[in-house]
Give the backbone structure.
Amino acid sequence: MSTLLHISASPRGAASESLQIANTFLETYRETHPDTEVQTWDLWDGSLPEFGPAAAGAKMSVFGGGTPEGEQAAPWRATQDTFARFAAADRLLFSVPMWNHGIPYILKQLIDVVSQPGMVFGIDPTTGYTHLLADQDKRAAVIYTSAVWGPPLGPEFGTDFASTYFNDWLARTGITDITQIRYHPTLSGDAEEARRSARAAARDTAKSF
Ligand SMILES: Cc1cc2nc3c(=O)[nH]c(=O)nc-3n(C[C@H](O)[C@H](O)[C@H](O)COP(=O)(O)O)c2cc1C
């Protein structure tokens, strides 16, 4: 059975705009893909391991061709388990609110945990990175939301480093089939209309995802 994993980076529960758009997506997805298992992962639920000194040490051990041992062993196992959860999904749906012109730190934590040599990437001194999740028919849909920044506005309203960074990271894993669903009402825009339009885009994307 194929699986869709919804990864949410908003901690705002029922008040979350990105979660409400994700719920619209998932409602249509379940109707149109009854044979796909839908799983959800709230990154704020405490299941994401830290990536501190021992985990960083483990990463550098592996990078140098070694095996994490001693205090590095448990964090490395946690990293492997987290990567396995992430990489098992055939379809990925992300809810990504803009935080300070970038992504919420909990999503960066997921990136730092799973971006490991031999898992997400390989590296060659002359040809550079290889993308280990490529050619697995994986697809991603990303719901990007913000309240102040919006595409028509100038840099005085901020800069969108959220989607530029996150789309680039996804592509570096090898997942290049990325659909963006956007909700950027801006402070002077029509939030209701922006919501309607984002939900319509979510339903459309879900049907053929
Ligand atoms: C910590 C924090 C930082 C934010 N930073 C920005 C920002 O830099 N630019 C912006 O346009 N909106 C910013 N916002 C507003 C959110 O991006 C916006 O309300 C978004 O829709 C929230 O998504 P959510 O409701 O799913 O949590 C910020 C909100 C929070 C809580």
About this structure: The helical segments are 17-32, 53-63, 73-87, 105-114, 161-173, 191-207.
